Amino acid sequence: MSTIVLAGTAAILSAQQRPAPVLAAVTILRPARVFDGESMHEGWAVRVRGERIDAAGPAGTIAVPDAKVLDLPDTTLMPGLIEGHSHVFLHAYNETVWNDQVLKESLGLRTARAVNHLKATLMAGFTTIRDLGTEGAEYADAELKQAVEQGIIPGPRMLVTTKAIVATGSYAPKGYALQWRVPQGAEEADGANVIRVVRDQIGHGADWIKVYADYRWGARGEAAPTFSVDELKMIVDTARSSGRPVVAHSTTVEGMRRAIMAGVETIDHGDSGTPEIFAMMVEKKVALCPTLAAGDATSQYAGWKKGEGAEPAGITRKRASFKAALDAGVTILSGSDVGVYPHGENARELELMVSYGMAPLDALKSATSTGARVLHMENRIGRVREGLLADLVAVQGDPVGDISALRRVRMVMKNGTVW
Ligand SMILES: [Zn+2]
């Protein structure tokens, strides 16, 4: 049967008539300009049909009869933004210190907060997140991902890692009486047992495997490497045979080197990265997720009054290492470690990337087209292009001239639905 049935007329059909496909709703978005994930186009419009982008181009070329038109004057329409490093099960550390969040806040309480965090993230224009560890909240990230997918709660599309993997004795909470085995914020594993833990996390819904290649367990409390290259390789091989990539937390040169050798796909933080190690990342096609906003926030929690007095040494170092990564040509995935600071303020990372020397257009790419490629989602999101999912955000002004325009969100669309 070829008859097209419009919504609203289906009720008058007899029960015997098989319903024909309902015409997907068509919306034309008319902003001042479109950032398509690669470059800026003045005077473009975008046509959305159902959950997908149907066309994008000069406004005059994409009009169709009967389409709903959404005028978005003075705005820039962009692909929905990507947050490459979030923790929706954490809230700002100046509200509650990390140890207490992990040990004293119950799973239900943390989940209730996380539901709010997901909504705040979506409404801030971040339509996809890679959430990098529940920090003691078990597998609740995979569970909330289901809730979002089933339309039970609003939120971005989620890539989750569940518990993340740490070497025994290296992680936290620390500082308790030594006779107690204090529950840890991630899952401990060592030697060949890492294989079982990777498989178990995959079985519990992990899309990526996260491993801590170093942590603050050095002889003087400094960051030091944890897993051997062999252990990291077992993690990467096990994850890869299921089609899942591995992300490494790493701040030290040796931790980064081992993670690169083992075949991880992104290194997150990279604080002590050198030109040599960044060159190695370029050669092995490993992306950096810089999390500039985390150190910026924790330095302020520690008393730094931004704009007053000397910049903390940690910030100066981070500025220098990020610049070295840019100079080396490392692929950058925008990711902020949000959770350290309030959810919904994810744009801080892009502001800081620009303030630390990245071109605004490159910063936008790292949170759209480049980010999508790093996350293996380039065939679904990250560009304003025919056929991709209609994840779109309109912000007031032009973020290339003023990156803070990203904070002035005027419209968020995910999967073709306006939130
Ligand atoms: Zn993190």
Task: Please give the alpha-carbon distance between the first and last residues.
Answer: 35 Å
User: Going by CATH, what is the homologous superfamily of the largest domain?
Assistant: Metal-dependent hydrolases
The first-level CATH class name of the largest domain: Alpha Beta
Unique ligands: zinc ion
In DSSP terms (H or I, runs of 4 or more residues), the helix count works out at 12
Assign the CATH topology of the largest domain: TIM Barrel
The parts where pLDDT drops under 50 for at least 5 residues are 1-16
Question: Which of globular, elongated, flat, extended, rod-shaped describes the shape?
Answer: globular
Number of strands: 19
Helical/strand content category: alpha/beta
Instruction: Compute the average pLDDT.
Output: 94
- Counted up, domains total 2
- CATH architectural type of the largest domain: Alpha-Beta Barrel
Instruction: Report the β-strand fraction as a percent range.
Output: 15-25%
> What Rg, in angstroms, do the CA atoms define?
23 Å
Main sheet makeup: 8 strands, mixed
Residue share in helix: 25-40%
Commentary on this structure:
- It is a single chain.
- The chain has 419 residues and is α/β, with parallel strands linked by helices.
- The protein has two domains: 10-79 and 386-418, Urease, subunit C, domain 1, CATH 2.30.40.10; 81-374, Metal-dependent hydrolases (TIM Barrel, Alpha-Beta Barrel), CATH 3.20.20.
- It is 30% helix and 22% strand.
- It contains twelve helices and 19 strands.
- The chain has helices at residues 98-104, 107-123, 140-149, 193-203, 229-241, 253-262, 275-283, 292-301, 313-328, 348-355, 360-366, 369-374; strands at 26-35, 40-42, 44-49, 52-58, 68-79, 81-86, 126-131, 157-160, 165-166, 187-188, 209-212, 214-216, 223-225, 246-250, 266-269, 287-289, 392-396, 409-414, 417-418.
- The strands form five sheets. Strands 1, 2, 3, 4, 5, 17, 18 and 19 form an eight-stranded mixed beta sheet that branches. Strands 11-14-15-16 form a four-stranded parallel beta sheet. It has a three-stranded parallel beta sheet with strand order 6-7-8.
- The two termini are 35 Å apart.
- The chain binds zinc ion.
- Zinc ion is lined by residues 85, 87, 132, 337.
